């Protein structure tokens, strides 16, 4: 019996007992327990369900809904996950913690404080002023091939030399850095913590050095830089989950310059108090950022050429915008509206919505993958959290009009619970993971497709086994492929438990054989990896 079946059974059984329980008053909890539960909620749950628990990628967890389900059933859901993409926590949280969380989500959510200009200025520090920074690189590292790697649970980022596979330096950052983005010049790495702390790392010192930091909010996930000609390295923008807003900063010092709230009406015309900022991307041929607002489904094109008289174009798309990436021409941005089962396509040239494409349950592309399909021409790929399918969407309205903005092919992935797909312009392969699959073997494996011959059965590789780590109960989730600068290697993180050894496995993209395993006691829970050159140029 697989875990889905076990979980479904457990839910059905617990459901039978819950009718009586649910009719009671919500269970109460002590102030101390509530504080511990709030911490776990912030670290593990808020991202999907929202601080106010109104739901997005995850379900609405307001007391009206949770109390109806009742303590037992909530415990089962938290323990075993669901087919809809809710991850199982039985290998991460103790039984007591699971029970505490089931009680916690039946309480009324607390509303956290706002975080405005005064708070940002109070948190802002410049450790090394721009004029005191090196005038040329002070190290011999091939900076193009450096990987910025999130060490999720230690609140650090490791900068790994892609040529030698040695850790060049580890810097202390915000908690669980979500993404790293590069300045247009490739010199600066911007990393945003889940706790809203933004760090600016200068790669020109002998060792990677944090030169400025700021807190942009209480919870955040995205950061981007200005990439239009004349604005290189000039501005940074960070999107917050709480408060729902984005902040524009000086690119070299992180001095906050402007904050814009994203609260407002959804595409259905209803007010939402918590429309969180999801992915942000910089357009290369305009002074513009594409800012995707999750709960409202509004895509804001923010013109940064005049911050005092800021112009925004608001495009209506679909609710629950999350992650996305450019098509190969970098004219169209494709963003997953994951809980709406759609991908929205923005035409940044005309500033209009080009299409809303229906997909399978909960598309989750990361930045997606672009390649030329032998039959359908240029396509962009996304995998799904809620289905074992990779959808290929045609992206060339000029030469392949009949296929543009349609799902032209669906490939079978080795499982649902997938988060990221990846390829490279020099590669013949498309890689897909499934780290949130409740089956250990599937979460530890990846599927590789031959993009020149998609009729050929794909290859499934258990990457976790290649790392040869000690056996443990916790799943060694294999997550997020990233290519090296010349597109010959694929790097995967082995995301094991916080107290267990983790690793990064490097595979040869041509032969699909293991090339190296990066192990180090300091490499704790590596997740996202961002190659300097590929991130700077949006290559995927
Ligand atoms: Fe992510 C990208 C939000 C959980 C690793 N993640 C993103 C982006 C958003 C987002 C909005 C796009 C940023 C951009 O491009 O500007 N992620 C969220 C969540 O809200 C969610 C679902 C729950 C949470 O609590 O954070 C979530 N994400 C995770 C994880 O659990 C992952 C696997 C591990 C981790 O480190 O937390 C994870 N997310 C990533 C990575 C990217 C990402 C590696 C960047 C992919 C890329 O190729 O750009």
TrEMBL record:
Q: Where is the signal peptide?
A: 1-22
Q: Which UniProt keywords apply?
A: Heme, Iron, Metal-binding, Signal
SUPFAM superfamilies, A to Z: C-terminal (heme d1) domain of cytochrome cd1-nitrite reductase (SSF51004), Cytochrome c (SSF46626)
Write down the Pfam families for this protein, in alphabetical order. Answer: Cytochrom_D1, Cytochrome_CBB3
Q: Extract one GO molecular function annotation from the record.
A: electron transfer activity
Q: Which parts of the sequence belong to the Cytochrome c domain?
A: 32-109
Q: Does the keyword Heme apply?
A: yes
PANTHER family per the record? DIHYDRO-HEME D1 DEHYDROGENASE, PROTEIN NIRF
What is the protein name stated in its UniProt record? Nitrite reductase
The species this protein belongs to is: Sulfuricella denitrificans (strain DSM 22764 / NBRC 105220 / skB26)
Please state the gene responsible for encoding this protein.
napG
């Amino acid at each position: 019996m697989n875990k889905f079946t076990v979980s479904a059974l457990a839910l059905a059984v617990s459901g039978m007992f819950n009718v009586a329980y649910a009719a009671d008053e919500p269970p109460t909890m002590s102030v101390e327990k509530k504080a511990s539960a709030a911490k776990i909620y912030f670290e593990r749950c808020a991202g999907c369900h929202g601080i106010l628990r109104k739901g997005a990628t995850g379900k609405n967890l307001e007391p009206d809904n949770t109390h109806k389900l009742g303590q037992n059933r909530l415990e089962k859901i938290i323990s075993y996950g669901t087919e809809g993409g809710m991850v199982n926590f039985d290998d991460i949280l103790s039984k007591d913690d699971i029970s505490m969380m089931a009680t916690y989500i039946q309480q009324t959510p607390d509303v956290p404080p706002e975080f405005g200009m005064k708070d940002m200025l109070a948190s802002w520090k410049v450790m090394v002023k721009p004029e005191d920074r090196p005038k040329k690189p002070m190290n011999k590292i091939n900076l193009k091939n450096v990987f910025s790697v999130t060490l999720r649970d230690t609140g650090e980022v490791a900068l790994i030399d892609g040529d030698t596979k040695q850790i060049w330096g580890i810097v202390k950052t915000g908690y669980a850095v979500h993404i790293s983005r590069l300045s247009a010049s490739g010199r600066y790495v911007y990393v945003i913590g889940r706790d809203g702390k933004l760090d600016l790392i200068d790669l020109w010192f002998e060792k990677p050095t944090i030169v400025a930091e700021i807190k942009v909010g209480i919870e955040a996930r995205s950061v981007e830089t200005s990439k239009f000609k004349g604005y290189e390295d000039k501005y940074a923008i960070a999107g917050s989950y709480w408060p729902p807003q984005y902040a524009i900063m000086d690119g070299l010092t992180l001095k906050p310059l402007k904050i814009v709230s994203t609260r407002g009406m959804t595409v259905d015309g209803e007010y939402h108090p918590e429309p969180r900022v999801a992915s942000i991307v910089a357009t290369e041929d305009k002074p513009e950022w594409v800012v995707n607002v999750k709960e409202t489904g509004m895509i804001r094109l923010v013109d940064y050429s005049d911050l005092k008289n800021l112009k925004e174009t608001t495009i209506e798309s679909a609710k629950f915008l999350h992650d996305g990436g450019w098509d190969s021409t970098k004219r169209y941005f494709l963003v997953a509206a994951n809980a709406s089962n759609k991908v929205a396509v923005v035409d940044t040239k005309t500033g209009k919505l080009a299409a809303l494409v229906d997909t399978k349950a909960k598309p989750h592309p990361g930045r997606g993958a672009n390649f030329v399909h032998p039959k359908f021409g240029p396509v962009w790929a996304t995998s799904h959290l809620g289905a074992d399918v990779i959808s290929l969407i045609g992206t060339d309205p000029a030469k392949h009009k009949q296929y543009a903005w349609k799902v032209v092919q669906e490939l079978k992935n080795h499982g649902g619970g997938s988060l990221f797909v990846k390829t490279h312009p020099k590669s013949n392969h498309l890689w897909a993971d499934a780290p949130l699959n409740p089956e250990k073997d599937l979460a530890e494996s990846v599927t590789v497709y031959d993009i020149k011959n998609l009729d050929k059965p794909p290859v499934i590789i258990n990457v976790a086994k290649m790392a040869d780590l000690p056996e443990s109960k916790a799943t060694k989730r294999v997550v997020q492929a990233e290519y090296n600068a010349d597109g010959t290697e694929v790097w995967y993180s082995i995301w094991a438990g916080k107290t267990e050894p983790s690793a990064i496995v490097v595979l040869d993209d041509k032969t699909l054989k293991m090339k190296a395993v990066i192990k180090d006691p300091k490499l704790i829970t590596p997740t996202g990896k961002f190659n300097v050159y590929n991130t700077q140029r949006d290559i995927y």
